[in-house]
Amino acid sequence: MRQKTALIPTLRTVSEAEMVSHQLLLRAGYMRQVAAGVYNFLPLGQRVLQKIIEIVREEMNRTGAQELLMPALNPAELWQESGRYDTYGPELVKLQDRHGRDFILGPTHEETITALVRGEINTYKKLPMTLYQIQTKFRDEKRPRSGLLRGREFIMKDAYSFHADRECLDQTYEDIYQAYVNIFTRLGLNFRAVEADAGAIGGKGTHEFMVLSDAGEDTIAICEACDYAANIEMAEVVFQGQDNGQASVPAMEKVSTPGKRTIEEVSTFLGLPTHQFIKSLLFIVDEEPVLVLVCGDHEVNEVKVKNLFDATVCELADEETVRRIAGVPAGFVGPIGLKEQVKVIADQAVQVVIDAVVGANEVDAHLVHVQPGRDFQVDQYADLRIIQEGDVCPRCGGAIQFQRGIEVGHVFKLGTKYSQAMNANFLDASGKEQPFIMGCYGIGISRLVAAIIEQHHDENGIIWPVNVAPFAVHLIAVNMKNEDQAKIAEGLYEELKRAGMEVLFDDRLERAGVKFKDADLLGIPVRITVGAKASEGIVEIKLRRSGESAELAHEDVLKELPNWLKKADGQ
């Protein structure tokens, strides 16, 4: 491609972007914003997208998956069948056609694929079957930000597998898990597969693939000593408490705590450490009130609470609900003497707290010298808190550390969540009707563009891995008005194209400084510069990543280029 006529509108600065990937994609002319969270991919951006898509397609096809294409516009009835139409949330883009029929723009396609398969497959003899697509998705993000990392319209690879038994699902899950490892390795990413929560997709058994980056929105708990990694929402907390036996604790006593509502405020006021407090938080779990107790220096993990009850909806009660049930504002609620009976569950660490402080269910008052088991009863103890750095690894006993990550892939074992809800069945070997057992596997294609840049850039611009670079070679003629330079550059351009090499030829009538600055910004792996030594038949070859360079006779460029491309990725 000749740069003189290419649509590559570079910018020196941008003001509307905070994330490095967002800034560089705009500055380097890879994309332009149409609306908040909606972008045009310009020619360079489209080339990168296609490189990523081809790698994903190759690895998915290798598993035996079949590619198809489903519509972005989906009838609401399918989502009403599954029950997600009302529970998915405000991110679901809903609309009506001219006849008043309800539709949605698909954020994911479990319902659509289930409806397709139930109409076409009715026997175990056609199973297992994995189908996938690469398509645009829509989610009405409240605050789209971070460029491609959180948009309202994005490109995704979503795959769905159908099975007669769970052993078969487990095998496909492992096959696609390995395909994902292959994909992200080929993309040049430093990533971890972490145990995760299924969220709105549903199902049991799931892993997220996280690109390690400070730009990530997710916190990952990882072990220093083994390969354990989990999203902070799912990370297991090892209970190390010891039975407090019959600890001698004075009788419970009410104390005045005027205006002190938070653990920190009451701790300071009473002069007691926060770990001696028991925090009481009221949740509404599938419309039922549940009081959740954790130690004062811990935080409730809402996902664990939701999963404990296998609930559809779990959320912290609002102030009005707290007042209605407990009779007091949040901050004074405790497990003793609630006005209405509620289920009480507690994190496992609460059972070994000695001489605790709790809310008194009375404004401006707390109870001291409270002993779990003596002064109040708990319906169930469980792992309900968010893991902390320094906690014990649940696999090997090492120390847990936190890292930030960008989610780029997610694999789920859906089971029969959708097939049962949508009456999608097949006949098994005995002729009995059974619901399909399903898996679901997603990759954020457009998000990967940003994730790669977050890991591969420097102060001058992007540094693309060779496999996804829009072009392998950036050929620069320093001065196209110089006859020697123009002749050699034109000759190299034609020679590289004939050899099947992807090359961007900077034939613009621009200053050398502008060309070099743009080259660094665009991030193409290998740069060949035809400059002052063109009259001697000499050109410079340089790597974008390391800065390594050498002078070559222009006749030797094609012969030497494969070695330089290998070095460009550190091979």
From TrEMBL:
Main localization category: cytoplasm
Cellular component terms per the entry's GO annotation: cytosol
Stored PROSITE patterns: AA_TRNA_LIGASE_II
Alphabetical list of Pfam families matching this protein: HGTP_anticodon, tRNA-synt_2b, tRNA_edit
Any single GO BP term: prolyl-tRNA aminoacylation
Subcellular location: Cytoplasm
Catalytic activity: tRNA(Pro) + L-proline + ATP = L-prolyl-tRNA(Pro) + AMP + diphosphate
Annotated Aminoacyl-transfer RNA synthetases class-II family profile domain residues: 32-465
Family named by the database record: Belongs to the class-II aminoacyl-tRNA synthetase family. ProS type 1 subfamily.
Subunit structure: Homodimer.
Purpose: Catalyzes the attachment of proline to tRNA(Pro) in a two-step reaction: proline is first activated by ATP to form Pro-AMP and then transferred to the acceptor end of tRNA(Pro). As ProRS can inadvertently accommodate and process non-cognate amino acids such as alanine and cysteine, to avoid such errors it has two additional distinct editing activities against alanine. One activity is designated as 'pretransfer' editing and involves the tRNA(Pro)-independent hydrolysis of activated Ala-AMP.
Name under which the protein is recorded: Proline--tRNA ligase
Gene expressing this chain: proS
